[in-house]
Hints:
Blueprint: H1 4-10, H2 13-16, H3 19-26, H4 28-36, E1 40-42, E2 50-54, E3 57-61, E4 67-72, E5 79-80, E6 84-85, E7 93-100, E8 108-115, E9 125-131, E10 135-141, E11 151-155, E12 161-163
Antiparallel strand pairs: 1-2, 2-3, 3-4, 4-5, 6-7, 7-8, 8-9, 9-10, 10-11, 11-12
Amino acid sequence: MLTEKLVARHIDAEKIVTEELVARRLKVSELAAQMITSGLLQTDAAENRGVKLNSTGITAFDDSGKQTVKISANGDGNYFTGTLATSSNDEPGVTIYTDLARGPAGSRSSIIEMRPQEASMQAPKGIIRMDPQGYFTFGMKHHDDPINVYRGLSVDWNGGVNISESLRVKANVRVEGFFSQTKTFFHVPLGPYTLNGGGWQEIRVGWGDVGHLPLRRHPSH
């Protein structure tokens, strides 16, 4: 006949499962130390795959093995590759990315895109773009513009400035050098005149209508 004493003697649950026994069998403290205070945490055992965290920082690799993220524990040489955005493309925010560019195979342009808040999300976007041919653009892009169409100011590789619409100046303009004749612009010499600094001077000039002046071409053309 089983009694409480006999059951306790044969089973004695407290002696079978104790905190000391659990700790001895599982080694909880050692297991936690290896998981949390490890010299390396990684999502993939392969050398150039997944995300890795160690004493030098955080690195990440894409499916081809190319490193896409580097966060150094020393704070130097940090970078992300790909697209960096403060919001999705259909919300206001800033996106920094690279895109295919005209030129040799592999050419890419660096772009900063700024999207304002607007109900239809069809407001013009602010664009800063640098192309590999040495063409820097600072302007806007309408929502229905083709991919490589931008409106605004651009600077070419030798420092020339181009404006896609008109230049409106509300203060002083300083020009050094000469005007060059083009297909849509010509100049006629007037003078000599003296313009005194520190004030203004009115000069009246009159000439007859000479019509359209042909573009001057070099004799060799």
